Amino acid sequence: MWVIVRERMEDYYVGVLENSPECTDEIKPGMVLHFEARHITQIHIMK
After folding, report:
1. β-strand partners of 5
2. C-beta of residue 34 within 8 angstroms of C-beta of residue 14
3. Residue-level pLDDT at 17
4. Labelling 27: which of 2, 4, 17, 46 has CA 20 to 30 A away?
5. Could you give the CA distance from residue 15 to residue 3 in angstroms, rounded to a whole number?
6. What is the mean pLDDT of the chain?
């Protein structure tokens, strides 16, 4: 899943889902997600 991070809180991040996951229909592009650093496997910094 690709998420655009919008905000970093003390213990978690807030981001917007950018793609449609194939494993579930419960989350959709545009949804706001809250997640921890341990859920991140790769970071791409846009310049």
Report:
1. 15
2. yes
3. 96
4. 46
5. 6
6. 93
